[in-house]
Design a protein that fits this description.
Structural class: alpha+beta
Largest sheet: 5 strands, mixed
Number of helices: 4
Distance between the termini: 12 Å
Strand content: 15-25%
Helix content: 25-40%
Length: 122
């Protein structure tokens, strides 16, 4: 999605606002990837994913029958929902609550996809 579309969607409640960043494949395995940067607290070592994004991603996983991973290391929407504790509401983003997920609940990228060789992304 181009930047003008992303900016316009930012002001809506559409689930398209939370479209993952990548579709990746290795051999016949296809996954959706939503890259997160600066979303892990250095002090608490917990990951932060906005609740609205988790809800949209759960719907997307159900619709596409493809796994979706958040890349800090790797975290699924189910992990964010199951292991997360509700954090404070902020004025950033949509204003929905952020589940705070302990960083030790994420999986290293290599554990799911192997070393960097062989993964193709679009």
């Amino acid at each position: 999605m181009g930047e003008p579309i992303r900016l316009a969607l930012h002001h809506t409640t559409s689930s398209l606002r939370w479209t993952p960043d990548l579709i990746a494949a290795r051999e016949r395995q296809v996954v959706l990837i939503d890259c997160k940067s600066r979303m892990t607290s250095r002090a608490s070592r917990r990951h932060v994913v906005e609740r609205a994004a988790v809800n949209a991603h759960l719907q997307l996983v159900a619709w596409t029958a493809l796994p979706l991973y958040y890349v800090f290391d790797l975290l699924t929407p189910y992990d964010a929902l199951g292991y997360g504790q509700e954090g404070p509401r902020t004025t950033a983003g949509s204003g929905s609550p952020y589940p705070l997920v302990p960083a030790d609940r994420s999986m290293p990228f290599e554990n799911v996809f192997g070393r960097s060789g062989g993964l193709l992304a679009a």
